[in-house]
Amino acid sequence: MPQPVPPISVRKGGRILTFWNIVAVLLVLGVLVFLAEASRGVGQTLAELRMTPVSLDPANLPEYAARTSLRMLAAMLLSLLFTFTYATWAAKSRRAEVLLIPLLDILQSVPILGFLSITVVFFMSLAPGKVLGAELAAIFAIFTSQAWNMAFSFYQSLRTVPDELVEASRCFGLSGWMRFWRLEVPFAMPPLIWNMMMSMSGGWFFVVASEAISVGDTTVALPGIGSYIALAIQQRNLAAIGWAIGAMLLVILIYDQLLFRPLVAWADRFRFEQEAGVTPPHSWALTMLRRSWLGTLLEGLFGVASRWSLYWVVPRHNNPGRARGGQDRVARWLDHAWYAAAIALTALAFWKTAAFVSAGVSVSDVKEAIQLGLATMVRVFVLIAVASAIWVPVGVWIGLQPGMASIAQPIAQFLAAFPANLLFPIVVSGIVALKLNPNVWLSPLMILGTQWYILFNVVAGASTVPSELRDVGTNLGVRGWAWWRKIALPAIFPFYVTGAITASGGSWNASIVAEVASWGDTHLEAKGLGAYIAQATEAGDYHRIVLGIAVMSAFVIIINRAFWRPLYSYAERKFRLS
Amino acid sequence: METGSLLDVRSIRKIFPKPGGGELLVLDDINLRVEEGEILGLLGRTGSGKSTLLRLIAGLSQPAAGSISYLGQTVTGPAPGIAMVFQSFALFPWLNVLENVELGLEALGLPPHEIRRRSLAAIDLIGLDGFESAYPRELSGGMRQRVGFARALVVHPNILLMDEPFSALDVLTAETLRTDFLDLWSEGQLPIKGVVLVTHNIEEAVLMCDRILIFSTSPGRIMSEIKVSLLQPRHRLDPRFRELVEQIYVAMTTQPSAQARSLRSEHFPGRGIGSVLPQVSTNRLSGLVETVAGAPYSGKADLPVIASILQKEVDDLFPIAETLQMLRFADIGGGDIRLTEAGTAFADAEIDERKRLFRRHLLGYVPLAQHIRRVLDERASHTAPKSRFLDELEDYMTPEAAEQTLRAVIEWGRYAEAFAYDDEMATFNLENPA
Q1: B88 to A270: CB separation less than 8 angstroms, yes or no
Q2: Number of structural domains, chain B?
Q3: Residue A4 pLDDT grade (very low, low, confident, very high; cuts 50, 70, 90)
Q4: CB within 8 A of A553, min separation 6: which ones?
Q5: What is the pLDDT of residues B232-241, one digit of tens each?
Q6: CA B338 to CA B302: how far, in whole Å?
Q7: Angle at A99 between CA A96 and CA A100, to 5 degrees
Q8: Pick from A247, A238, A255: which is nearest to A208 by CA?
């Protein structure tokens, strides 16, 4: 070839100003303005905040929406930071792993809403009298709803990086730092992004609970959609509820289009399966970024940063293999010391908790909490059964229609983000008007947001059923109940179990919000552990809060271990196709 | 220390710990040298530890005893002058061809323009021009392995380690890649000074290597060394080529029984309850028996011929042949397979008669099958959990091997209707035996 080969990263240059360039500039400016607007109030004092209370004027909604979404973004960044550090540490250090992973497992099952009251006090004390403290508390609450599953997914990815790629990267002398960014993070990216989307949906539920915080006699209402909704419920303003739903819908849509779609489309290249021919996900925002100079700029910056980090942050020469022999004894000794320390710490924590709870709680309280827990458990199981009966057939039907799945998916995702509080007006008025039993009729609120996980998963399962399998069914004339029993249900079962586990865990959490509902001055309450925690929070009774959380965590963990996990491994073994 | 060797491997032992305690000897007393300008072949079957040895040389794991020195220096971790080509390519799916090739150079911390220049040169050399911006998933297997080669060559290694680099490719593609590689090698276009090739394909070894070390299985030992002095390019139909292939077949088939004879008086390879059974389906057993029984072999055939007719490599064919030998349907030796009387009867029989014959031989000559049947007969319930036998087997082998052995015996037992197995309950039973 006569002319030298140009480096690949050189873009087909030429036009300076394209359509995509203009859109990109406008978007960047928009984001900057948005950030400035939304972060304005952070430095205020609480007194100043009270001067401008949240108002139900829809004109304020754009600002509230901006501030709420900024909180969620901050929480997401924190969650990512947590994921990259905590999960990496757990995956890389055998000693850390034995402690960190069970801890994560428990954090996943602890009712996050119960935390709220305790963390608020802590964060407020960090910045006394300032809005910052309340902001941090709200962000932390959202963080706790987002971080655990992300960290778990990342940890699992790190543990399943294919051996041959690890060997290749070691063989070619990649340093640990380089391996992390070039191998491990890319490999973990697709499941992580999927979990980020899930977390974001889950986060909405908590925004409503965390922006209008009241613990005992401290009440703070941070400007945001959550506070707006809380106020609307308090004032029985149906129109305002409508506005809030609209604003939420819009924010979710924007997040989807500007953040998650591009991320999913971008992360597609990190899929490890190497088959071609599947239509890759598409995002207009990503196309825009790629075609404008902004994309080139970002790519360049990223390239420089990564090169800089590779060359300067990390010593260039890979360390020669450490001599192992002789250190074994020291390592074993360190192991023992570490386990001893971990056990001592756990014992201390247990003792402290027990002492704290027992100081204000009697045995009958514990008995009561357990009884209430049983009531909530019955509710959760019945609800899961009912939701399954409804959504499994629907999900199978959707999954088997080509093209339907891609339409149903975003709708279900929006519905999953839909906070139960928004339905309070209808439910409470309905129960009062028809004189229904709140113990029964408040329950559906618990599964409102979580039932969609069942639908998600069943749809995903049904759409992966090989067409040969369906053809065989048709060919042999299998139909009716036999078709469900022999073909459809076994094929989706592992997926269904995954969805049901998520839905069940989420419902426990949601019980704290859903077992007590109010609309203006009408307060309804169902007997259950969720209501118990909610009341304790309102009364500022920390002993009962801790007791309630502990009992609920115990319930969730026991149910997971004794019921869901065995079911899951059975499903995996018996029904997983391939 | 003598000079001139690129690589000097001395008295290497490798031991894997077993989870339930105890140790498994994988490699024992391995000595070898790689001289400048030579392609050394490590030929052996699955379980002969040849890939393990390659990973030791690459510095990816450490030996239990012995030393490996590269240019006079002991290898304790991945050495910059040793690069590897992987069986499964091991490309990073999220990096395109160019980025995959550049990776090793980036790790060396070279300046960007140098990285780009050398990578493009390597891509050019290996025939990937025009594919620079393609992602691995867009490439065929052959093209992917070319990227694997380019990535290894770009770091200008002195030694290239190849771990069955062509075995994941179809026959035609593999042949093209081998030829291209040998052309570049004999024209002196490659930056490398020596090659270690792991393979289980006898013809590939004879085609490519200057020297072949034949490994025995469990534990891996070097059984014999064969020099190949044919000039490149070599031709498969060359009589001297065929002779070498035959010679290797003989070496590989006579070994187990010779070893067994020395260990015990039994005529067939040492098959106590604790021996690993290969997972060979009964269809394949029948298929080989029928082939050997049919024309033109009528009961006796040359293994290399059978291998090329059935398009099987050593790793596929040997386990089938050896299982037949264990069941006393065939005799193996001197590179030949010869059906026994029972084997011929099996070939002629109908399905029910076959099953009956198979059952008699399975329960007669496979101690594990015998043992399982006896336990089932003795118990009042006529059932026994899988874990019971798994535990017993794990005294002799790794958990994976135990699992595989049980799966093999389950399939044979089911075919023979000697016993049944319920996977859901993980129990053996006698529910539908004849």
Answers
A1: no
A2: 2
A3: very low
A4: A106, A109, A110, A111
A5: 888 888 888 8
A6: 9
A7: 75
A8: A247
Place of tokens 């380089």: A178
Contact of B59 with chain A, judged by CB distance below 8 Å, is answered with yes
C-alpha angle A17/A31/A68, rounded to 5°? 160
Residues 6+ apart with CB under 8 A from B66: B9, B10, B11, B12, B13, B29, B30
Q: How many CA atoms lie within 13 A of A253 on its CB side?
A: 7
- Mean pLDDT along residues A14-32: 64
Q: Give contacts of B 71-110 with A, CB under 8 A.
A: 76-78, 80, 82-84, 86-88, 90, 92-96, 98, 103-104, 106-109
The β-bridge partners of B162 are B85, B197
Question: If pLDDT is split at 50, 70 and 90, which confidence band does A377 have?
Answer: very high
Same domain, B211 and B102: yes
What is the C-alpha to C-alpha distance for residues B412 and A187, in angstroms, rounded to an integer? 40
Among left, alpha and beta (phi > 0; psi -120 to 50; other), residue A266 is alpha
Cα-flanking dihedrals φ and ψ of residue B33, to 5°?
-130, 145
Closest alpha carbon to B305 in B323, B292, B290: B292
Same domain, B128 and B245: yes
| DSSP secondary structure, A28-65, as one string | HHHHHHHHHHHTGGGG-BHHHHHHS-----GGGHHHHH
**A338-578 topology per CATH:** MetI-like fold (1.10.3720)
The answer regarding whether domain A18-50+60-273+280-317 maps to CATH 1.10.730.10 reads no
Query: Of the residues B198, B231, B250, which one is the last residue of a structural domain?
Result: B250
Structure-block tokens of residue B166? 């062509």
Contacts of B299 (CB under 8 A, 6+ apart): B292, B293, B338, B339, B343, B344
Which of A175, A316, A321 is opposite residue B76, by nearest beta carbon?
A321
pLDDT at residue A139 tops 60: yes
Residues in chain B closer than 8 A to A168 (CB atoms)? 84, 86, 90, 92
Sign of CA dihedral A333, A336, A342, A346: negative
B/e letters for A458-467, b = 16+ CB within 10 Å, e = fewer, are bbbbbbebee
Rounded-to-integer distance, Cα A570 and Cα B406, Å: 21
Q: Is B328 helix (H, G, I), strand (E, B) or coil?
A: coil
d(CA B103, CA B151): 8
The answer to whether the beta carbons of residues A101 and A155 sit under 8 Å apart is yes
Q: Judge whether B130 is closer than 8 Å to chain A, CB to CB.
A: no
| B140/A contact by beta carbon, under 8 A | no
